[in-house]
Design brief:
Blueprint lengths: L9 E3 L8 H10 L3 E4 L7 H14 L5 E4 L1 E3 L2 E2 L11 H10 L5 H15 L4 E2 L24 H17 L3 E7 L15 E2 L3 H6 L2 H9 L4 E4 L3 E2 L12 H11 L5 E3 L6 H4 L4 H11 L4 E3 L3 H16 L5 H18 L12 H10 L1
Parallel strand pairs: 1-2, 1-12, 2-3, 3-6, 6-7, 7-9, 8-10, 9-11
Antiparallel strand pairs: 4-5
């Protein structure tokens, strides 16, 4: 069997502000495809630019680097990065001044600053609906409870990112807005029928797909109308049948973090990695420990060797991930746009 770089299908997190030895070893030995950064990895603009440059050097320049840069309470960047408001606040401004296309301009702003720091992927926009006041995790991260408003603003935000060369990633497919639990701590269940999901939760995702969104993130949530046992991340019925076939998405599907309790309470990282790939996901997020990512990689290698995962299935995912890299990998521009006056002025308007 020809060599297959299973590590290409993993996006890995780590602790600290420089690449630790276990991460360096993992990238070099397993050809890890992507890195995710968090607040714990970032001290300053200069340090972040050094870090992303070091990571690329270790990987031979063939690495995707992503971050959760939503705005509001999910925001990893310290000053002088422009501090982005919540999407609920953005939607309120857009309702008053629709002609300004504020979400599009904001997408450009966010993308420019990320690109200047050497980051290629923003895990935004949130395409969930803010339909449940008791939802502990979504709330003001969403634009609205109205699926068409979320669709329009989400498409504007992602278009702004794409127009400055940064990959937006819509989330959390097929919708985390109407849950009573947070998948970081539990495995939520949504009882809605496919018919209800079709006219509500799926509307923004379908719009984003038609708008060319290159990447979508799955939810660690059980959608009982489709699959009573497996969360979307691990469900072939949801990933292959609903997302790939019905919604006609052929971009990169990334899992939410496999360390989250919505998965980890029931499946170890190795088992979850194998199941997610089998379900149709392409990029598996292991956001804390490089050593745990190694367990996932080894499990997938074994599953390929014994025929549980078809080589063609893996090659398809690697090709999708590589197609992103072909568009994206380029030297970061200078950092003068980060926190610049015109960016701050745009935020002042919203607030």
């Amino acid at each position: 069997m020809a060599h297959i770089a299973v590590g290409q299908c993993f996006i890995v997190g780590f602790d600290g502000t420089t690449p630790p030895p276990d991460l360096i070893q993992l990238i070099r030995e397993e050809e890890v495809g992507a890195i995710i950064l968090f607040r714990r990895n970032i001290e300053s603009v200069d340090q972040l630019r050094r870090l992303t440059s070091q990571l690329q050097e270790i990987a031979g320049g063939n690495l995707l680097i992503g971050i959760d840069h939503e705005g509001g309470r999910v925001f990893r960047m310290p000053p002088p990065f422009t501090q982005i408001p919540s999407m609920r606040a953005v939607a309120a401004y857009a309702q008053k001044f629709p002609e300004e296309r504020i979400a599009y301009k904001l997408g450009q702003l966010m993308g420019r600053e990320l690109s200047a720091a050497g980051i290629h992927i923003n895990f935004a926009p949130v395409l969930d609906l803010d339909t449940n006041a008791n939802n502990p995790i979504i709330g003001d991260r969403a634009f609205s409870a109205d699926p068409l408003r979320v669709a329009n603003l989400g498409c504007d935000l992602l278009e702004g990112h794409m127009n400055v060369g940064v990959v937006p990633c819509g989330k959390h497919f097929p919708g985390h807005g109407d849950t009573y639990e947070d998948s970081h701590h539990a495995l939520p269940h949504v009882p809605h029928t496919p018919e209800r999901m079709d006219i509500m939760e799926l509307v923004p995702f379908r719009a984003a797909i038609h708008h060319g969104v290159p990447m979508l993130m799955t939810a660690h949530v059980v959608y009982e109308g489709w699959d009573t046992e497996r969360p979307a991340t691990l469900s072939p019925r949801i990933i292959e049948s609903v997302l790939r076939d019905q919604c006609e998405f052929d971009g990169v599907v990334i899992t939410d973090d496999l360390h989250m309790q919505g998965i980890a309470k029931f499946w170890d990282v190795g088992t979850a990695s194998r199941m997610a790939l089998t379900a149709g996901c392409d990029l598996l997020a292991v956001c804390r420990y490089p050593e745990t990512a190694r367990q996932g990689i080894e499990t997938v290698k074994n599953a390929v060797a014994d025929g549980q995962i078809l080589v063609e299935r893996l090659e398809k995912s690697i090709a999708r991930i590589q197609s992103l890299k072909n568009i994206l990998i380029s030297p970061a521009p200078d950092a003068t746009c980060i926190g610049c006056a015109s960016h701050k002025e745009l935020i002042r308007k919203i607030l």
